[in-house]
Each structure stands twice: as structure tokens, then as C-alpha cells.
Amino acid sequence: MEKYLDPSLSFETRAADLVSRMTLDEKISQTLHSAPEIPRLGLPAYNWWNEGLHGVARAGVATVFPQAIGLAAAFDAELMTRLGDVVSTEGRAKFNANSRRGDRDIYKGLTFWAPNVNLFRDPRWGRGHETYGEDPFLISLLAAAFIRGIQGSHPKYLKAAACAKHFAVHSGPEALRHEFDAVVSEKDLRETYLPAFAACAAAGVEIFMGAYNRVNGEPACGSRRLLAEILRGEWGFSGHVTSDCWAIKDFHLAHKVTNTPQESVALAINNGCDLNCGSLYLALSAAVAEGLVSEETITRSVTRLMTTRLKLGLFDPPESVSWNSLSYLENDTPEHSLLSLEAARRSLVLLKNDGSLPLNKETITRIAVVGPNADSRAALEGNYFGTASRYVTVLDGVRDEIGPGIRLLYAPGCHLHKETDQPLAEKPGDRLAEAAEAAALSDAIVLVLGLDANLEGEEGDVSNAFDAGDKKDLRFPGLQNKLLETVCASGKPVILVNMTGSAMDLRYAHEHCAAVIQAWYPGALGGLAVARLIFGGFSPSGKLPVTFYETSEELPPIADYSMRAGGGRTYRFMRGKPLYPFGYGLSYTDFEYSGLRARRQDGVVSASVTVRNTGGTPAYETSMLYLHSADPLDTPNPSLRAVSVNFLEPGQSAEVSFEVREPKVIDESGAEKPIDGRIKVYAGGSAPGERSEELTGRKLLFAEV
Prior knowledge:
Immunoglobulin-like; TIM Barrel; four-stranded antiparallel beta sheet
């Protein structure tokens, strides 16, 4: 038996044997994302490109979970592991079925290019909704948990392979990403932009994906500093690296750091980019002939790629890999739909409630559902989505929730971003009068505004209508602000449901609406979750994973990657007061914190606190631990260091314990230093700060160690 077919040998030994049998041209063929078969070695074709950001994407029917930013609002690592496990279960089930029928096309493999662990540093960035928010600790916690769910816990085989992307310092501007140089200080690099990627490496993620942009002059997909020195040198990463799609041609066409395709592919593969999403690595043959790349370097990369395929069990007897028994019946199951609904419920963040919520069906005769996102499937999905077997929009959810006893009046009110809904309308606002009448005749109004991935998303998606996918500012597009004012003028209680993947300017809504719900892009069943929240079917528990600023005018330019520029980026650095702060979210019940005990010993900060549900509604509560010091190298504001999520019945208490490694500060050279002085410890259900206290009426517990 050939060594590469012997399951008793290590994956690395088997991969080396397999690659040793390939010709140079065959090796090069395997460095493309669409890798062809090599019949003489029994190697089937394999397409490395698959997506699983919040469910198996672009490959037919699959469970569609809330978009990543909504999942982040649950602050729950255990939930993320469960979701990742479902993604890989459905991915395996679909892979098994497709492979049996000879379908090895794109989006049919077991290498999922997710999660996106870039930092959502600016609310204008179009791809921010693919991320887990603006805090390095929270991103690290959730990404590692999702990776564990995707890859499974088998002692030998990967259930599927996860990918940490986009490495690194990547969060806009989208329009310039193919030519942009993200200039970042060593302090910001180590303190803010790299921690989540380091956590993914520590969690055993199998794949890293490089970014389109340069980082301090080097193209990320060919950066010696990032790929060789940090990723493999410092962190000991042993998996494989893929380029972002068609990123390597940018080296000579856009970044202008090389002159020819041969120089570009040499720069990438010599520094450790093993797989080319695209076809430019076909130029490796010429690069070898020109002496720019050695065959040994190509062998190294292909060996890493074959090792991943072996870890997935793709060359072993089917009966030896338990996941080969997963049938298509394990895809889109009722149980997975229930988990999607649970995730949607956990993702919703109640930003304001004057007491109008939950609505009482006994006191309502008519209810209006208004807004361009009220009946939008696109606003459920976000981007990188699959095809659900059932969609429930907010309109659908409210209709199902109220039943036949309450009259429902529906009015779109306006187009999502155009000034007319009907192309032949003679003047702007052709749906405003209908919305005003529906509001006037109703006892309460559910107003559903926002965006969708056609407006905020990725450069290159032709549907992105504004600024290559980025937002120019935080205002609602089109006539949505006019619709908001029109509906609020009715004098009836208005429940605003904001369906966006990012922070918006909600100042008017905060002043004039009875309640404000941040619904994100809540997945295929998201409308059901929103409706049940509105009518008291459960208590909201989501917390903001990003800051909601008052305006974009207070922010530095999106191209400035300094965390301290202008008024400071994100909750850790901003000097002003946000509209809604990171970590904030209301509930239908009340939680009381007491008995904070904290100590600092042997390089560990330990704290414990009692949290009690003092209200009348069962609910989840996210307890948070923030640390800060007077050390001049520390961040200006306290930083999140630990979370604990508990479901508490009325009157029930939980003892919450936190134990974290004593944080270090980062100096201007990027080196870690012990904190000089004492550490302030904050514990509670939100972030410390004046605005959190104003909105919640509570201060966090405080100690010093």
C-alpha cells in the first residue's frame, strides 16, 4: 500500500508521500482553489472555496442563521459552538450527497472560509456585519467557539475546516481595498488588530486567509511579516494559508509592488501563501523557470494542502470517518430551524422601551406594519447566505402572532433607497400618504427600516449601490427618515425595528419612538423572533457588540487605522458620549448585582459576583467583567475581559465567577509590559461609563486589586 493511503501513518507523512509522486505541473494545479483530479494517483477534483459564515452558503438549501454581527450580540460562546456544529453537519451531509453524484463544484467542499474575525472599527465599513463586532476579546471568544463547532472534537479527523479571515488589518475602505495600504502602529497592531487572529491560531483553526490590502507596505497575501514571522513563527500555525480571491494579481496591477505575474506569485508563495483563490498560480511554472520560486517551496505548500484534505478523511475508507454516514436528511432539519430561531431571539437588542413593550393583544384592535424592510427577505439574510426552506419576514411574523382577532394594515411607506417606489410616480414619496393613513388608523405601529446587503456589503458585489458597499454616513438612505417622521407624527406608539448590520443614526428614533429594536439581519426565521419579542413571547437579552455613535461626523476618516485618531475609535478609545454604548441592551426584567469580590494573585485576576433576576420575567443575562488601569500604556477606557451568560427565572440567583490572565499593556514598539499599578475591576450587565448609567439607571460594581 502506498504510504499516502495508509491510515496508520501521520497525516504529514502521508501528505509528503502523496506530493512526492506528483510532477511539478501536477503540484501547481493543486495550488488553485479549483484543484483538478489526478487520476493516476486516485486524487479526485476538489474545490477549496466554500462559505459558512452563518450557515452553509451559496450551495442550495441550508439553515440560514442570523448574520454574524447578530450572533455576536448574544455574547455566548456555547451558542456559537452549537451553530458551528450545525454548519459542519449540514456541510458534511451536502458534501456526501454531492460527492456520490459526482458534483465537486464550487461551494460543495468541506473547507469553509469563515469566520470573518476582522475588527469592526468603523460603522461605515460595508462588511462589518460579517464580523463579531469591535472588541478584540469578544471576537476572540466567539471565533474560537465557532471554529471548535465547525472542526469538531474528533481526536483524529476534522469534521470540516474553518478559516480565519482576512489576515490582517482589514476593515475598509472597500472601494480602495485592492490598492490600499493599511498603515498601523505596532501598538495598535498588537493591541487591537492581531489578538483575534492569535486566538484562532490557538484554537487550532486549519486555514488562514490573507487580506486584499497592504499592511505597512506589504501585500497581506505575500507579507513576510504577517505570514512567515508572526503567523508561523510566533504563533506556530501549521495549517495552510489561502489568498483572498484574485488578490495576488493586485500585487502588480494595483499595489505596484511587483512588475509581473511571475513576481507576484513568487512573493506570495515564498512567504507562505499556499493556495490561490483564482488562477494566477498557473504562473508558478514560469516563475520556477525564471528562478523566482523553487520546486521545494511549491512542494511545501502542496504538502500543507494535502495534509488538510487528509485531516478531513477524504482519502480514507468511508467507514473510518464517522461523518461520512451523514445523509442529506441531516440538512435543514426541524431541530436546526429551532436553533436558528433561538439564535435570532438571542440576537435582538432592545435599545429603548418607554413601557410600551411588550404590546398587549387585548388592548389592540388594529396594528400597522410599515416600512421597506417589513416584508424583505434580503433583510433577513445579510450576505454569504444559503437558501432557506422557509422565510418569515417581520410582516409575516406579526401577522402570525396576532391571529385573526386584530386587523393588520401593511404599508411599505417608501423604497429602501430610492425616492419613489413606483417608477412612473410623478413625485418623490409616492407611498408616504398610504403609510400615514395606516398609522393614523392603528393603535400601534411596527416600523421596519434599515438596509440590506445590497447597500452595505463587499466591493465587487454589483448590487452594492453606495460607495462600493461602504456607507457614506449613518443616515437612513432614501426617504426612510421622512417615513420615520411621518409615522411618528401620528401620535401613536411607534416600535422601530432597525434591520441593519451596522450602527445607524438613531437620534430621532430615540427621541420620538416608543421603542427601538436592533434586529440586525436575523436569519430566515428572524421575523418570527421579532414579532414574539414585540408581543412578550420572551425577554430580549442581546447586547450591542458595537458602539452606536450619534453621527459619523465625530469619527476619523475611514482610511485612518489609528485607534486613537480624532475622537477615538470603538468603546475602548472614544472620548465622546455614544448614543448607545457597546455592551448595552435592555430586558423585560431587572437584574441586581451584589457581592463583588476580586483579587489579583500569581498573574491572574479573579472576581465573583451574584446576579439575581428581581423582575417577573425569565430571561438571559450577560454578565461582563471589564478591567482598566492608570498605566499610561493602557487603553483610555476599560476593556472587556470575560463574560458569563445565564438564564434566570424570576427570583433566581447565580454566582458568577471570572478568572482571567492578568492583562498586559502594549508599548509603542508592540512589546508587552506588565501593568504599572493597580487594576480597576468592573462587573455588571453593561460596559462602565456615563452613558450606560444614564440608559440603564445602574452603575457597575467596582473594586480595585
